[in-house]
What does this fold into?
Amino acid sequence: MTIKKFMFVNRKAPYGTVYALESLEVVLIAAAFEQDVSLAFLDDGVYQLKKGHNTKGIETKAFEKTYGALEDYDITKLYVDEESMAARGLTADDLCVPVEIMSRAKLGKMIEDQDVVLSF
Amino acid sequence: MKFSILINEGPYTHQASDSAYQFAKAVLAKGHEIFRIFFYHDGVNNATRLTTPPQDDRNIVNRWSKLAEENKLDMVVCVAAAQRRGIVDEGEAKRNGKDATNLAPGFRISGLGQLIEAGIQSDRLVTFGD
Amino acid sequence: MLNIVNKSPLDRGALDSCLQAADGGAILLIEDGVYGATKGSAGEAKLKAAAGKFKLYALTADAEARGIADRMMDGVTMVDYGGFVDLVAEYKTCQSWL
It folds into this structure.
């Protein structure tokens, strides 16, 4: 099978809209198809990785654990925009999984290098 | 060139479905091929045959069905997103104990693998959303 | 990369994020994104500053729908849906900044 570089760009916060959850579902399928998968988090997308999702009060299924499970699917390329983190008062310690934090310019170059860019 | 299109929003609330439709027509007019049109998130709502929009405005669902029929297009609605939002064909109705179906002509319900395959097999994949 | 922006810059950060992150190529404004290229708007200054890095395009049909086709800034090439298709074909990949 052809292997293409798939980049999933996440720019939206979790729970306020469905995009974070449903885009993760696509990520898992891309891994099942053995594609070269990376995830980029910028703008409010960085909030998806903030640890400690407690969704009891909003009676919605929490999906923080899924980020941790990505590794089991050989998805380890998670790139996070450092400017988006800084603007939101977040540090690497706040995140639920290990990621590579990089400048916005470098992230842009990573995205440029992809074959297929999916935005949600 | 082979194009695929991803539509993330439903009819009328966002312009995404309209933009995607005009883009799809232009792709065909330019002599390119459309490999697949994939409907995800609220985009699955483009596939209900139960809409009755005002007579003097475009009928978004019907024109997708017509475009698909005239050009033998493959229009796929994501099964997980469809289940969440109540877009149902015969198979889904049986499987999930629903007493009705509402899938419009020209659409088929299938898995997210169809989107990934579209990304792999197409030269270009364009996303329309919010 | 062809960067497609469909939101007005004063409503959402999509155009800003695109201008800051994208590595060059082209920007195509569609839907409410076309407001970003109107003369005298905050978007105009940003796009002018970016004109060295990106080729700028806007969808005619969306500008006309919104009654702003007569005030699109210089330096932005207006295209129809056929031109949109040509742009997607021209660039190896496209990204939608939603």
